[in-house]
Amino acid sequence: MNRAQPPDVVVRVVTTRDAATLEFTARRQGVPPLRVTLVGGDALHRARQELDAGLTRLKDDLRSLAVEDKDLDPAFQSLHGLGRTLLFILFGAQQRVLKGLQDFWRAALPWAANPALPPPLVECVGPQDSFLPLEFLPFLGIAPAPAVENRDGFVTACRTLVGFSCVVRRAMLPAPVRGGTTLRTGPQGRLPARYLYYEHLDGAMAELAWFTGPANAHVDLEGPYPHAADTGPGLAEQIFDPRLLLDGGRRELPDQLQHFACHCYTRSDDPLAAEIELSGAGRHSRTTLRTLGADLVTLGVTHDERDFDLPLVVMNACGSGRMRAQDAPSFPYLFLMNGNRGFIGTETEIPDDVAAAFSEALYERFLVRRLPLGRALLESRQHLLHSLGNPLGLAYAAYADPDLHIQPTTEEQPRVPARADHS
Questions:
Q1: Pairwise CA distance, residues 146 & 153, whole Å
Q2: CA neighbours within 13 Å on the CB side: how many for 323?
Q3: DSSP code at position 420
Q4: Buried b vs exposed e over 2-39: b needs ≥16 C-beta within 10 Å?
Q5: Dihedral angle at the C-alpha atoms of 379, 358, 272, 50, nearest 10 degrees?
Q6: Secondary structure (3-state) at 396
Q7: Are residues 150 and 69 in contact, defined by beta-carbon separation less than 8 angstroms?
Q8: DSSP string for 24-65
Q9: Could you give the angle at the alpha carbon of 343 between the alpha carbons of 394 and 280, nearest 5°?
Q10: What pLDDT, on a 0 to 100 scale, did the predictor assign at position 320?
């Protein structure tokens, strides 16, 4: 793999008791840094509340997985309008500030709108309770585009939002991303993975069918969990020690990936009351992050220190579970504090069919084609735009190193060119 490059833009959230400030820094020479104080100390919280409401409206408007051409313009106007509303909550209608932001992004990333060039890397750093929904902000074109008339125009218009043009690396403080940037394969180049699900979701069953069918040559799958046996490790034990097998045995090479296709629930008044609901083989569990955290503490003090890297976690919150955007960071925080390699999850619950389509798109690129994680995530969002006219891939966020990749076997060659240096 190529040597990791520094981000093209860093966005840092700095909070005090009285105010919150965004600091923008560009790698490109000649672009001065920008520092903007947000409107009100609770602006970030209010922005995430609006994000939740806006995504709910958008999901209600998108009545099917594939969006018809006649509905593309309303979908874009809804999404871009949400982005502009977020900017108003964060910065007000201050002309100097808004024009300064637009000038900064245009100067820092002049190639971002060109899909023929490697995408920019943007890093967003902030604390769990004050995280910026950067992917949804139209910094690359704050004024809305003319009416969208076809699929190509829809894709071009959506690229004004950061999450459709840039690889975004989220860094949540104080939860570091640990481990190296390589996921290891076992015999025949298959990646050890674990599947945890809610079996009554059609999307969860479709994802399982893809893992055990088209992806079987690339994945050594443990699960699904829950399973029928009364014995075997519970949820916290599998998260703590990814070597454990459901039959009581132990893998030589730990899980490199743990995939959840399930219901998730959050409560804005208590982040630790957020729940993961699993179901399978007649067994059912609904576990709070409070319980999981306490169990991980117990396991930590009663077992030897782990001397192996922990897996990447992908949580596909789908179906009828209720996950609010303002509380979604509770889930990555738990896994990152456990020491996991990274976390991919959604800002809100996602319709079943969209979740399954995005999962297949992501893993086709990451597991099969072996693209780095950041590039695979961005291309999966773009794939849903191109093929289905569906923008909900933007709801998936990565708290992981974008260079995370699966170690190629001796027969494989890297397939992604180095990022261009636009400094």
A1: 9
A2: 27
A3: P
A4: eeeeebbbbbbbebeeeebebebbbbbeebeebebebb
A5: 70
A6: strand
A7: yes
A8: EEESSTT---EEEE-SSTTHHHHHHHHHHHHHHHHHHH--SS
A9: 95
A10: 42
Residue pLDDT, tens place only, 129-168 = 778 999 999 999 999 878 999 999 999 999 999 999 999 9
CB 298 within 8 A of CB 321: no
Name the β-bridge partners of 14.
Answer: 21
pLDDT at 410 (0 to 100): 59
Q: What six digits make up the tokens of 159?
A: 């690229």
Q: Which residue has the tokens 């966005």?
A: 11
Tens-digit pLDDT profile for residues 365-410: 999 999 999 999 999 999 999 999 999 999 999 999 999 999 876 5
* Euclidean distance between CA atoms 378 and 55, whole angstroms: 19
Residue 229 C-beta-side C-alpha neighbours within 13 Å: 11
Backbone angles phi, psi at 137, to 5 degrees: -90, 130
Of 48-62, 115-129, 199-213, 327-341, give the lowest mean pLDDT range: 327-341
Q: Which of 50, 54, 8, 122 shows the shortest CA–CA distance to 391? A: 54
Is there a contact between 70 and 150 (Cβ–Cβ < 8 Å)?
Answer: no
Tens digits of residue pLDDT in 211-250:
999 999 999 999 999 998 778 899 999 999 999 999 999 9
- In the chain, % helix, strand, coil (3-state, to 5) comes to 35, 25, 40
Residue whose entry in the numeric block shows the structure tokens 């403080």: 173
Strands 121-127 and 167-173: parallel
Would you state the structure tokens that stand for residue 300, as one six-digit string?
């930590």
Residue 34 tokens read as 């920008």
CA neighbor of 119 nearest in space, from 392, 395, 420, 423:
420
